[in-house]
Structures
1.
Amino acid sequence: MKKINAYKIISLVALIVLLFILILPQTYNVNKKQKAEECIRNMKTIYEAIERYMMEREEDFTGTAQDLMRMNYLKKTFECPENGVGDKYFMHGDFKTGEIIVRCPHEEKFPDHKLPESILE
C-alpha cells in the first residue's frame, strides 16, 4: 500500500511540473524574442509587397494589408503576434521618393518590433 501512495505522489508532482512548464511561457512572455522576430518577418513581407506594388503600378501605396491581398501582392493579411486580433500594421509607400514605411502598431510598447535599417536602404 505504501508503494502505491508513493507512485500517486510522484505522479501528482510530475503533473504539477508539467502544467507549470506549459503555463510559464504564456504567463511570463518567455517567447518575447520569437514574437518580435515574427513581427519583423510580417513587416518585411508587407514591405516587399508594397515595393512590388509601386514598381508595377508606378504609383504611391496608401492602404492596408487587405488591399495588397486583394490585388495579389500578399497571400494573407498580417497582425502583430504580440496582442492578436485587430493589430494592423501602419503602411505607406511613396513612389517618387521610393520611401516605404511599415510600422508595428505596438512599436512604442515593444521597441524591438522595428524593421532593421538594412532593409530600408
2.
Amino acid sequence: MSDAVLKVRDLTVSVGRGSRRHVAVDDIGFEVPAGGSLGVVGESGSGKSLTLRALMALLPPGVHAERGGVELAGQSLPFSGPGARRARRGRLAMVFQDPLSGLDPVHTVGAQIAEVPRRLLGASASASRRRAVELLRLVGMPDPERRWHAFPHQLSGGMRQRALIAMALASEPKVLLCDEPTTALDVTVQAQVLELLDDLRQRLGVAVVFVSHDLAVVRQVCEQLAVMYTGRLVETGPTSKVLDGPAHPYTLGLLEAVVDLDDLDRRPRTIPGTLPDLAHVPAGCPFHPRCRFASEDCAGELPGWRYFDDGDAARGTACKYPERVIAR
C-alpha cells in the first residue's frame, strides 16, 4: 500500500548467540496506512510482543534484531545504536499491557504526561500542563483538572490505562503500538478502552498496531489481521475475511478454541499439543505436528506464501494445503 506510514520488511530477531542462537521472530513484514489498524494474534510465545519491542528498539539484553528494515513516514529507523530510540521519539509510541509498569508511582499522572511535550516538543511548563489536561479530557478521563494531581495508585485500572494512552499521545506519534492494553481490565472497562482507541485512530489519523490473544477484541478494533506462529506470519488479510474464512489450520484452531455465545451447543475444540520452544521448532511447516490437515510432505520444506485472488494482495497464507482448511 503506497500510503503506508509504517513499513516493516524481513524483520528477524534472535535470542542468544553462536550455538545458543535461536530465531524468535523470522522474516516478519507488514504495512499500516495512516489511520489504519493492524491486529497481531497468536498464542503466548509466538513472537507478537517481541515484534513490537523490536520496532520500539526496546529489546531486552541477549535479544537482537539481526536484519530487516523499518520505515516510519518514509524514514528508515535503526534497530540499535545510540540513535535508535532517539529516532523514534515523538513519532512512535507504545501502550503496554500493565499501566502500572508504564507510570511512575512517585509522580502525579499529570506531571508525567506534561513531561512529554516539554521534553520532546519544547513546550513551556504552562503549555505542557494545559496539553496534559487536554489529553486527559481527550481520552475520556473524568474531571481531568482534578485527575491531573492524582498519583497512579489513586486511579482505577481503566483510568490508569487512559492516562497511559494520553501519555503516549502527548508526543503526537504517527504510530501507536498496543501490547495487549486491555488484558488486565474487566469486560466493561475493556470495551470503553477499545472504543477510545478506535475513536482516536479515526479522529487523529494515528496508525495502530494492536497485539492481542483475544480474537473478539481484534475483530472489534482492527481492519487488517496478521496471525503469528513460532515467530512467523502464517496468515494475513482483512480481519473479517480471515476470521470468517480462515485458510491456515492454526487460524482455524484459534477460532475453534473460542466459546461461541451464539452457538452454545458447539463445544470449543482445543489445539492439540503446545507451542514448541525456540530450540526445537519442527522442520517444514512448524505447525504440522499439531495440524489435523497435515500430510507427510508438510514436514519437508517450509511452505511458501500463497496469495488469494480476491482483489486484496494482503490476503495470503503460509500453508501448502489451504484448500483443505477452506473446504472443511
3.
Amino acid sequence: MRVSQFAVLARLAAFGSGLLAISTPALAQDAPKIDAADTAFMIIATALVLMMTLPGLALFYSGMVRRKNVLAVMAQSVAATGIVSILWALIGYSLAFTGDGAYIGSFSRVMLLGIDLESISPFAKTIPEILFMVYQMTFAVITCALVGGAVADRMKFSAFVLFCVLWLFVVYVPSAHWVWGGGFLGAMGVLDFAGGIVVHINAGIAGLVAALVIGNRQGYGRENMAPFDLSLAVVGTGLLWVGWFGFNGGSALGSGSRAVFAIVATHLAACAGACVWSAIEWAHRGKPSVLGMISGAVAGLGTITPASGFVLPWHGIVIGAVAGAVCYFFCTTVKQKYRYDDSLDVFGVHGVGGIMGTLAVGIFATSFLSATPDAPGVAGLLEGGFRQLGIQAVGVVASILWCAAGTWVCLKIVGALGGLRASSEQEREGLDLALHGEALHQ
C-alpha cells in the first residue's frame, strides 16, 4: 500500500513538472522582449518584401506591356514605393496598428512618435517596433503598386500618384487594422497569415474596379498587345518568388518552425500553380507558354499567402494546384466573356487567388500550426468543423464590399480633380514618351 502511495505521488510530481515545463516557455513567449535572432530574420524578410516591388514587380509588369509603356509601368512601382513609404511612416502605421478601435487605429504613433530603441509592438513581441513598422510598410507599398497593373497602358501617372495617396488611407489602412491591428475582423476570428485579404483581395478588387471605371485600352481585342519582353517578366517572377519567402515566412514575425512551414508551403504552392496552369494551357492551346508558367506560379503564391502559416506543406500543393486551374479560368474564359480590360490580370490572379486562399484557411487550417497566443487554435474542416470557414467568408465579403466602394470613391475624386486617363494621342504615342519624356531605344 505504501509503495502504491509513493508511486502515485511520484506520478503526480512528474505530471506537475511536465505542466511547469510546458507552461513556462509559453509565459516567457508572452513577455515582450527583443530577440536578436528574430530581429535579424525580420530585417532580411523586410528586405525581401521590398525587393518584391523594386525590382521584382517592376520587371514582372514591364515585361508584359508593350514597348512604349515599359518605363511608365516601372515608374508606378517606384512612385508607389516612395509615396506610400513616407505616408506610412507619418500616419499610416499609427492608424493601422495602434489603438483599440474596431474600425481604425489611433494617432499615438503619428510621425513614429514614442518609438525608441526598446519599443515593442503588441503584435510583434520579439522584434523592435520600428522594424515591425517598416516590415508592414513594405506590404502597403506592394499592394498599391499591384493595383497599377490592372490599368497599365492608359492611366495617367499623376492620377496614379493621387490614387495611391487616397486609396492607402481609404482602403488599405482600415483593412490592415481590421484584420491585423486589433480591428473587428481579427477579433471575430478571421485569419489572414500574410495578406490574402489585406493585400491580394484589396489589390485585385481595386484593380477590377479601376479597369471598369477607366475603360478598355484603345484597340483592346482588335490590336496585337503581346508582351514586349517576357524575359523581363521571368526575371521579375524569380524575384517575386524568392521575395515571397520574406512575405509569407516573415509573417511569422520571428525565426522558427512556423516561418519554415510557411516558406515550404509557399514554394510548393508556386510550383503546383505553375505546373497546373501550364498543363491546362498545353492541353487547350497545344503549347505551354512561358507567360502561362509564370502566371501560374504567381497565382499559387498569391493564393497560399493567407494560409501559408496555418497549413501543412502538402496543403500548399493542393492550394497551388487549385489556384493554377481557377485563376487560369478567370484570366481567360471569364475575362473574354465579359470583355473587361484588366491589363495584367490583377483581379484574375491576385483577387481570385486571395479569395480562394482566405477561404482555404477554413478548410485546411491545422490546429498545431494555428494555435498561438495571438491566434487561438483552429480546427479546419479536415479536423471536423465548418465554423472557421464561415468566419473566413465573412471576412472576404466585408473586404470586397469595402474595397470596391472605397476604390470607386477614390477614382471618382481623382477623376474630378485632374482626370484618370491619358488622352487618345498620348495612349497611341505611348505613356513613356508622352508622360515621362523618355523611351526605350528601338
